[in-house]
Amino acid sequence: MLIKHARAGLLQTLRRQLYARQLSSSPEPALQAWIQQMTSAPPKTTTDLIDLERAQQLCRVLPTRTGKSQVLPEWGTALGKGHHLAYFWPKNENEQLGEDGSSRDYNAPAPYSRRMWAGGSFEWPVTDPTTQEPQGLLVGSSMTEQTSVPKIEAKAGMVFVHQLKEYKAMGGRASLLKEIRMHVFRPSLERNPTKDAKEPKPTKKAPSLPQEPFDISFTYTPNLPLLFRFSALTFNAHRIHYDATWARDREGHASSPHGGPVVHGPLSALLCIELVEQWTQASSRGRGKTMRKFEYRATSPMYVDRETRIYGQSLEGSGKMRLWVMQDGKVGMTAIAYLM
């Protein structure tokens, strides 16, 4: 028995050493060459029609609008802030997707296969500099999305990819919306079938109470139908959002009682934007203000079937609102909305 355990321990040690060598042997020059290739590549341009069906369906899906007598978008009306996420789908065929189901267009090379949406920003210019007309994405209009990669950072065993997206009217020159998307890529996990077979123990749910004053709040519980419908509307096949086994065993999401699935980062950001927009329409302190920029950062994964609370605090005199999203006592996202 002792010999058997000793052999098992030796095999485990050898496997870890081999895995460490594989990571360290990933040629740094190759990674640098990929970074140079991505950051020097010309922007990619795609087009899409801001059709009415997706605009209305997204409104029906968002928890911030559920059960409320909302006015759905119509042809010619402005698309909600952040609702462009339901458009400009990736153009990959199934065989071109990564093993995790994600589009590989901007994914880091091996061994950095674990992808998470780390943060980003949205910026809405005040007026068209050429016509001085208010800007916005209109339902029924044809738009272009121009994507470039201005920056990629490799640090602490992770790769951070920054995408810059500019949205314009078809044939137009002025940006109606500028977006930064940042994804973080981590090395793949060491495969251990014995360990993977173990089910994670349920964790105790801690209350998601705010630690400081707030002006607005919203509580909801993300469920699988919500994640499925948001994935469908954004044409996102990333398996961490619907495959609990993959999320747990291949991505390391064992914090949830079921090891996943993981709530979309952009869904949490969009709900924060929705909350700010509702505050500017309903609150005497916010009425008349317009959000011009929104910055957010994912700080901890959030999971399905766990109560989630969003809080917002108006920073008087600064034209800003600070937001944070909590689940099980942890802050999963922080954000700043810039108002004027």
Question: What structural keywords apply?
Answer:
340 residues, alpha+beta, Thiol Ester Dehydrase, Chain A, ten-stranded antiparallel sheet, 7 helices, 27% strand, globular
**What about the largest sheet?**
10 strands, antiparallel
Strand content: 25-35%
Total helices: the number is 7
Q: What is the third-level CATH name, the topology?
A: Thiol Ester Dehydrase, Chain A
Q: What radius of gyration results from the CA coordinates?
A: 22 Å
Strand order of the largest sheet: 1-3-4-5-2-7-10-9-8-6
> What is the general shape?
globular
- Count of strand segments: 10
Mean of pLDDT: 86
Which stretches are low in confidence, meaning pLDDT under 50 for 5 or more residues running?
Answer: 17-27, 193-200
CA distance, first residue to last residue: 72 Å
GO molecular function, one term: (3R)-hydroxyacyl-[acyl-carrier-protein] dehydratase activity
Biased composition (Basic and acidic residues): 188-202
Protein name: Acyl-CoA dehydrogenase
InterPro entries: HotDog_dom_sf, Mitochondrial_HTD2
